[in-house]
TrEMBL record:
<dbReference type="InterPro" id="IPR002645">
    <property type="entry name" value="STAS_dom"/>
</dbReference>
<protein>
    <recommendedName>
        <fullName>Anti-sigma factor antagonist</fullName>
    </recommendedName>
</protein>
<dbReference type="InterPro" id="IPR058548">
    <property type="entry name" value="MlaB-like_STAS"/>
</dbReference>
<dbReference type="InterPro" id="IPR036513">
    <property type="entry name" value="STAS_dom_sf"/>
</dbReference>
<dbReference type="Pfam" id="PF13466">
    <property type="entry name" value="STAS_2"/>
</dbReference>
<dbReference type="InterPro" id="IPR003658">
    <property type="entry name" value="Anti-sigma_ant"/>
</dbReference>
<comment type="similarity">
    <text>Belongs to the anti-sigma-factor antagonist family.</text>
</comment>
<feature type="domain" description="STAS">
    <location>
        <begin position="10"/>
        <end position="107"/>
    </location>
</feature>
Length: 107
């Protein structure tokens, strides 16, 4: 997993899982704490995430809210969109452009 960017926009590459969660949490919390306004998290280059990775994103979402900011997900890959819908987190998280439920393949 590799995260690049600043306090306004971060791009996540690779896998966001139990092995990369601690590093990702550190980077996301620093970005939230050191910026203002929306923090955009670009997931278009993310290969996969597990429950731990999703927990890191939810933690950053909560932290951003406490700091008066908003975490916005951009470029969420379709397989990850399905997970957000299945867990109903698409109703809580800000997702740029929303999720086109009708375009998601049925599983």
């Amino acid at each position: 997993m590799f995260i690049r960017g600043d306090h306004a926009e971060l791009v996540v590459e690779g896998r966001l899982d139990v092995r990369s969660a601690a590093d990702a949490r550190t980077v996301l919390h620093a970005a939230v704490d050191n910026g203002v306004g929306d923090l955009v998290l670009d997931l278009s280059e993310l290969d996969s995430w597990d429950a731990t990775g999703l927990g890191v994103i939810m933690g950053a979402h909560r932290r951003a809210g406490r700091c008066g900011r908003r975490l916005v997900l951009r470029g969420v890959p379709p397989q990850m969109q399905r997970l957000l819908v299945a867990t109903r987190l698409h109703r809580i998280l800000a997702i740029e452009g929303g999720i086109g439920l009708e375009s998601l393949p049925r599983v």
